[in-house]
Amino acid sequence: QKFAGETHAYSVAYADNEIEEVLENSDKIIFNTIGQFERFKEASQNKTRGLRVNPQVSTSEFIIADPARPFSRLGEWDPKRIESVIDDISGFMFHNNCENNNFDRFDEMLTLIEERFGYLIEKMQWISLGGGIHFTGEGYPIDQFCARLKAFSDKYGVQVYLEPGEASITKSTTLEVTVLDTLYNGKNLAIVDSSIEAHMLDLLIYRENARMTPCDGDHEYMICGKSCLAGDIFGEFKFNHELKVGDRISIEDAAGYTMVKKNWFNGVKMPSIAVKQLDGTIELVREFDYDDFMHNLS
Question: In the prediction, which pLDDT does 259 show?
Fold first, then answer.
């Protein structure tokens, strides 16, 4: 609806009451299992179809985000079983990278995929390598990366797709917060008009700190959210001045898994969404009020 180009639909499981809408709004549909493919084989017969394949290798440091974790439900892993539907699909999705900024590791895993599934890949027309490849990171060998993808494409005669994952939005967005209160309880604390639980949930799930730069001043503060969750903490940061009520703080790299996960925990107000243009002007895209909160619940 909002972007030109191809739309690839994928879900761990489609329901009977949603499959038609999915098919109507996608160019390709990727099934997570052979069971799902067989269930919707007839309904999807006029659509370009693919299957998720789990190569059982990944880069995730967190088991909660590891697609190759033990007993994973994410994709088919047995080449012999996949052969049974090879004539009815035209592509595979291998989504096994997670925040992978190591090209050598990417190359190693793609080689393992070729060794195990190469004879099936050569029968396909397209391959999606998913997201999670941090090719926009500083110092990433982008020329080697492109050459590796081109060699893979040429070897098997396939179109290669990459998901527009976190790499495409890194450092594109900040969460702008304002200091509401300060106090001292063994450490300097600053409470802001936001919440890690409500607005940057992944930081809580993965036990990570938010990011701010610069962060090398003489005044260290723990930046805390305003919800009732005791652990609603963005992290500890060093500022070049003492914080006071009304100070604005910019939390960096706040695009990934934030707007799609934000929630109304404690009734904390949603951050407005705005775009800062290249000329410095700010365009307000969306703001939220009590009616949004109320209608979200009933």
Answer: 86
Closest CA to 251 of 268, 267, 266, 233: 233
CA gap 274, 70 in Å, rounded: 41
Q: What is the CATH number of the domain that holds 83?
A: 3.20.20.10
One DSSP character per residue, 8-49 reads EEEES---TTTHHHHHHT-SEEEESSHHHHHHTTTTTTTSEE
Q: Does residue 61 sit in the same domain as residue 102?
A: yes
In a shared domain, residues 239 and 201 = yes
Measure the CA–CA gap between 177 and 237, rounded to whole angstroms: 14
Confidence of residue 77 (pLDDT cuts 50, 70, 90): very high
Do 21 and 122 share a structural domain? yes
Q: Considering the entire predicted model, what is its pTM? A: 0.89
Q: What digits encode the pLDDT tens for the residues 28-63? A: 999 999 999 999 999 999 999 999 999 999 998 889
The answer to whether 8 and 26 have CB atoms below 8 angstroms apart is yes
Q: Say yes or no: 190 and 164 in one domain.
A: no
Query: Does any domain span residue 2?
Result: no
User: 97: helix, coil or strand?
Assistant: coil
Do 39 and 158 have their domain in common? yes
In sequence order, what are the residues at sequence separation of 6 or more whose Cβ sits closer than 8 angstroms to the Cβ of residue 35? Answer: none
* 65 in Cβ contact with 130 (< 8 Å): no
251 touches 234 (CB < 8 A)? yes
For residue range 90-99, list pLDDT tens digits in order.
999 999 998 8
Q: Whole domain around residue 59: which residue ranges?
A: 8-168
